Amino acid sequence: MAIAWLIPGAGHLVMKRPLKGVFFFCLVLVMFMLGVSLHGRAYVVDHEQPLLSALATFANVATGPLDLLSRVWTYQGIVYRLPQDTDPLHEVLMARVRERVLRPTYEYGTTFILTAGLMNLLLILDVFDIGIGRKE
Hints:
The chain is an all-alpha fold. It has helices spanning 2-6, 10-14, 18-37, 50-61, 66-75, 88-101, 106-131. The two termini are 17 Å apart.
């Protein structure tokens, strides 16, 4: 199960479905890279919108180790929670987000990154169903 999270499509390879595994790996990777190239961003949990930002952050984390790359590209570090307004780091992180938001392709890129994570989550659940015999 963990291998399916670490490497998209690897769970299908383990379940002896190599064609699907390679296809799903390419699909998630292309969606993620397209999102990054369109200046999408990784979400962080924000105290002003805790539920929605937590769900979006969870979708990002579902991409596995690719999530770490998107966080470094977005925030120049691994950040999962936006600090309080009084913290000096808050303004630094917000400036990095504002820089991306000004790009015309920002929303498309962010959507592609989120979709890559959600797709990988569905693939993990598919491998789980195959593993317990619920699906052939």
